[in-house]
Design brief:
- Keywords: Signal, Transport.
- Residues 1-25 form the signal peptide.
- It comes from Litorilinea aerophila.
- The chain has 452 residues and is an alpha+beta fold.
- It folds into two domains: 8-161 and 329-368, D-Maltodextrin-Binding Protein, domain 2, CATH 3.40.190.10; 164-326 and 403-446, D-Maltodextrin-Binding Protein, domain 2.
- It is 42% helix and 12% strand.
- The protein has 19 helices and 13 strands.
- The chain has helices spanning 8-14, 16-26, 64-68, 87-99, 114-119, 127-133, 142-148, 170-176, 192-202, 222-232, 252-266, 274-279, 282-287, 301-304, 341-363, 370-377, 388-396, 407-422, 428-446; strands at residues 48-54, 77-83, 106-108, 149-150, 153-154, 157-158, 162-169, 204-205, 211-216, 291-297, 311-314, 327-328, 331-334.
- Helix 3 links the parallel strand 1 and strand 2.
- Helix 16 packs antiparallel against helix 17 (388-396).
- The radius of gyration is 23 Å and the shape is globular.
Length: 452
């Protein structure tokens, strides 16, 4: 999940050392790949360590052994794998290492951190390596590739890519006589109207009128899931994620989607209201058979193994405009200040082309290339049955994190305003207008073209 990031001023203090190096590199002719590490190749047979830094909050160590097998393919480099958890501690250590002039060679980034790192020139442009090796990007999701591109440079390759989806209890759907959420991306059925009709049948009340079984939970996933629902109606948080200039929560499409979600709780009570969630959280409701649909993703399979019901996953419904999804597409980047760019690049390629296959098969992650996802992840005998849902979502998703250096601050700001909607204290229009007024000045501060 996203964590709080440093302000630009704080980041500049922490990363000043590598920022200066990066600016110098950006303003000069870069050395050709292969020319930057010759003096560091050992003559004694001692291997050069390539430092790799990840976090693995759900599956500790799942990447380390497959990556270390790279050592068997060459005799120049070794893998120094460092695992830092949680992501907030990871971010702090990463920036401190950069400030000390000894960053890891290769490291994962949250997409919300990427604009700040781009602004401060602390990432290595790997486009020259891609060109030299004729390295194909065609099997990666195109929209993720677009996100790693900036001003003619290219600044990472994907780590594990996975999407949101709707988990559902088959038993509750069967009992209500309701069709399951579709597992086919282009299925014309499973629209928002179908979703509402299903919710009506899935809801149960006791003799006093109190809801005893809910259809869907609107709270899990926060702004990430809200962005999916807004997109179904044609709305979004900002005008252009790659070059945002204003908040667009005030537009009719966004307001309609937000009100649609709020009505699930406050008009129909198909979703738990805050007081109900305080007594029993959404996952506890699922485990007790009191919630039919739940927002989740590929990271939740192990958690659902203990649910005492038959379950599967499906797509979000198709809205008046489209079907869409939000996907986690964190990049793995190379430090601009690395002393071993060639080795870091070779390890990055090995991760994407070789190690990831074992990571999918043995570690249960979804992968980085569409072909691997379909051939390994989607065909796994492990539940859920409809794993192709997540592959289709990754292949077709259209929601990017806005390229803003202060995106997490913006998220916190509009979340505070939208909370009045989820608490039933404001309409979607009122909350959205207040959010836009609070966020628009922050967008101007956070643009990569801004000097703020």
């Amino acid at each position: 999940m996203p964590v709080k990031s440093l302000s630009r001023r704080d980041f500049l203090k922490v990363a000043a050392g590598t920022a200066a190096v990066g600016v110098m590199a950006a303003c000069s002719t870069p050395a050709a790949p292969g020319d930057q590490t010759g003096s560091n190749v050992p003559s004694s047979g001692e291997r050069i360590p390539i430092t790799v830094m990840f976090w693995d909050p759900q599956t500790p160590g799942v990447r380390e052994l497959p990556m270390k097998k790279w050592e068997e393919t060459q005799d120049t480099y070794s893998v120094d794998y460092q695992w830092i958890n949680p992501p907030s501690a990871f971010y702090e250590k990463l920036t401190i290492m950069m400030a000390s002039g000894s960053p890891p060679d290769l490291f994962i980034l949250q997409t919300s951190w990427l604009p700040e790192f781009l602004r401060n020139h602390v990432l290595l442009d790997i486009q020259p390596y891609i060109d030299r090796d004729n390295y194909s990007l065609d099997d990666f999701p195109k929209i993720a590739v677009d996100a790693y591109s900036y001003q003619g440079g290219f600044y990472g390759l994907p780590d594990n890519i996975t999407a949101w989806c709707i988990y559902y209890l088959k038993d509750l759907f069967d009992e209500a006589g309701v069709d399951y959420p579709t597992a086919q991306w282009d299925d014309p059925a499973w629209t928002t109207d179908d979703f509402l009709a299903a919710c009506e049948k899935l809801q149960k009340r006791d003799a006093s009128g109190k809801v005893t079984q809910y259809a869907y939970d609107i709270s899990t996933g926060g702004w990430l899931v809200q962005s999916i629902w807004m997109s179904l109606f044609g709305g979004s948080f900002v005008d252009d994620p790659l070059d945002p200039t204003e908040c667009t929560l005030d537009r009719p499409e966004a307001i309609e989607a937000l009100q649609f979600l709020a009505d699930l709780a406050w008009k129909y009570e198909y979703a738990p209201r805050p007081e109900a969630s305080a007594d029993m959280n959404a996952m506890e409701m699922v485990t007790n058979g009191r919630l039919a649909m739940f927002n989740g993703g590929g990271w939740g399979f192990q958690r659902w193994a203990d649910v005492p019901y038959q379950w599967d996953i499906g797509h979000f419904p198709k809205g008046p405009v489209r079907r869409n999804d939000y996907v986690f597409y964190y990049p793995i980047s190379i430090a601009n200040a690395t002393k071993h760019p060639d080795g870091a690049w070779e390890l990055l390629k090995y991760y994407e082309d070789v190690a990831i296959k074992e990571i999918i098969a043995e570690g249960g992650l979804q992968g980085t290339k569409i072909s691997d996802m379909r051939e390994i992840f989607a065909t796994s005998a492990n539940p859920p049955e409809s794993r192709e849902v997540l592959v289709d979502a990754v292949e077709h998703f259209g929601i990017l994190d806005p390229r803003l250096t202060n995106w997490q601050k913006i998220v916190n700001t509009f979340t505070a305003e939208l909370d009045y909607l989820w608490l039933g204290e404001k309409s979607a229009e009122e909350a959205a207008m207040a959010a836009k007024a609070a966020v628009d000045p922050l967008i101007q501060e956070g643009r990569l073209t801004s000097e703020a």
